[in-house]
Design brief:
mainly alpha; two-stranded antiparallel ribbon; about 0% strand; globular
Length: about 525
Amino acid sequence: MKRLSSVTRASILLAVFFFVDKIFAFARSVIIARQFDLSPELDAFNIANNLPDLLFAMISGGAIAMAFIPVLSETLTRDGKPEAWKLFSRVANFAFLVTSLFALVIALFSEQITRSQIGIAPGFDETQQVLVARLMRLNLIGTVIFSISGLVMAGLQANKHFFLPALAPSMYNIGMIIGALIFAPSQGYVIGGVRLPAFGYGVEGLVYGVILGAAMHLLIQIPGLVRHQFKWTSSIDIRNESLLRALRLISPRLLTMFGIQAIFIMRDNFASRMEQVGVVSSLTYGWMIMQVPETIFGTAIATALLPSLAEYAAQNDWQRFSDSLSRALQIMSALSLPLIAVLGLFIEPLVKLIFDFDAAGTNQLAWTTRIYLFTLIGYTTQETLARGFYARLKAWEPVKGILLRIAIYIGLVWAGFSLRPDLGAPVIAAGELAVIGEALFLYWRLQKSGDVKLRMNDAIWRGLLAFGAALLTGLAIQAWFGADDLVGALIGMSLAGIAALLIVWKPLRQLIDL
């Protein structure tokens, strides 16, 4: 039997833990949704997360994960672990101070940020705006903790240690589940005959769960630092050449992350102006459902691939670089396209079972999710292509890509918002189709670099054929059982998935050689 490559083994490990994390995330979301329904309080909680998420993503989350790992990997290869950990410490200290400073500014001006016409919730009434500001201030505590935890993830991944970083997101979701089950309700849940304590903090209890989850996210990774002989350096030393070089490479990634998070802020700005309750939450949950397959195979493969791509780039081994990236893109195309059909057709009875919303809420969330699912091919390929640029230490190309995506997004949402605001959340979700344009742009730019030669072979055509086969199979099952039948949905997903798998099996076999 052929031995799996190190990247494939890491991808499988990450996929398993991402899947476990998504189970916890769904459990958390179901508990919260059943507790608060599609309510003004739930909309306020979801929208209050935006700026803290932006701060985390820019200062220490995605910015470090893609831009810092190649720099840290290069330092590890060239100078060894002691120097790599010194660099890590300086960046961590710098990120913590900057995050704390920005958190303080956001906390002081939270009400103005919430109410401004270019802010996060200008369309909410005054009661909701006050609640958003209060929840946002609390949320920033978790963000400051994440400013260190996100960096620890990057440091361990640069050492090709994926186990604890993959486990950390589940710890975060467990913390939020504790918040939803214990901190928020006024009456304790009964589980296994035991009544849980209840603190009765209401929607604020959910934020206390966020803070607890952030702390658990950090603590679970500490043993990994010990294993890899981490030694903390207390100084920042802003004149240190390695730190300055790392910051120069990270700065364009910060701009990219700002653009990505700005889309979420614009999304909720538009949603708050719609005179419908639950639009923000429908967008939040629809996005979360799409993120399940995107994270399990898209993020897992791309995350595992980055250290190896960085290593190939450092060695100027462009043949192996191109081969690895091409195989990953072929797998993304072969998986994403049929999944759109399999999940899109049968999502409504699943949404009804999981969230237990009324008919209108179920219909809104189902159509929002369907629109988001069509972005799956764009997100999986964009994640992989962006890492190709970061591995080559060319971080400005993704900045151009996100600027293009923002322009397309604004155009699509503005057109939909102007023409059919009555459709609610699906109109805003359609703007995310802009990510497909970004992915095409990044593919074109990487191909024009001269040293990278990407090959898609027949993966896209097989993916499209699999999409058609899954769609026809699913429609036949729906005609037999009915569109709302849960048993029919489960059978239909299984048979449509098998029909698609028979067509895309060839490109999927390349997982072995990643």
